[in-house]
Amino acid sequence: MLHIHFKVLIVATTCLSGAFALPGPLRLASTFSEITTELQHITLGNCSLKDVELPINDTKVKLPEPSPHLDLKYVVIGRGTQNYSCNFGESVHHPKKSSTPKATGAVATLFDASCIASQSSSLLHEFPAIMGHTTLGSLAFLAETLALSTKTSNLIIGEHYFNAAGDPFFDLRLSGSDTWIVSKKDASVNAPTRRSQPFGKEGSDVPWLKLDCKDCKGVKEVYRVMTVDGVAPSTCDGQNDAVLVDYAAEYWFYG
């Protein structure tokens, strides 16, 4: 049974960045409270992903279905930054203020959410917004919350970044398995408009993706869904040469 005192939730909100323009710190505490209450009413002993459904019907244009011969292996929540460059060598003919940031990749820590997914999809889908608007330094609190609920001490199971060739790489070997994938984009659709906007703003969420294997072991397809934030500023005006935009998403791995 998971119990978190309300005062602890209030303390956790003090670590949040004001840049997210939350309607108030109590919003985060309230959401944590709702999540932990729901966790108390479900049993997370069975983590089978056999009947878990990928949420690809939420977008106007639907991502392709997973290949029929593949099974769902992992559901994880990625939390990190989408990275962009505004380093163009500013000139009179190419002023920085009118330039558009160029995507250079992403970096994220991958948190195991398979047990949550096996029991409650609605609960699972709460986490990207919470984790996306909690500073990276405060994620230890969230990791402890999830670890207690899933009865595991190894919640962080991997990392995501772009390799030297510019390919999205997912390394899940912290899970204890020899699982990794160098991926390539198969399909992309715009993220749906969130039903409510307690965090962030409309149009700030990076697209949903289907990624295929370029080189892989253990998994062959990856979906990025339920994205929160990550979209670059509209121009480079006032930005540093390197622009890091916080984001979170669910990643679904099939193999």
UniProtKB/TrEMBL annotation:
Has keyword RNA-binding? no
**What keywords sit in the KW lines?**
Signal
Q: Which PANTHER family would you find in this protein's record?
A: CONSERVED FUNGAL PROTEIN (AFU_ORTHOLOGUE AFUA_1G14230), MALATE DEHYDROGENASE (AFU_ORTHOLOGUE AFUA_2G13800)
InterPro entries listed in its UniProt record: DUF3455
Organism for this UniProt entry: Penicillium steckii
Q: What's this protein's name?
A: Malate dehydrogenase
**In the UniProt record, does the keyword Cell membrane occur?**
no
What Pfam families would the database entry show?
A: DUF3455
**What span is annotated as the signal peptide, if there is one?**
1-21
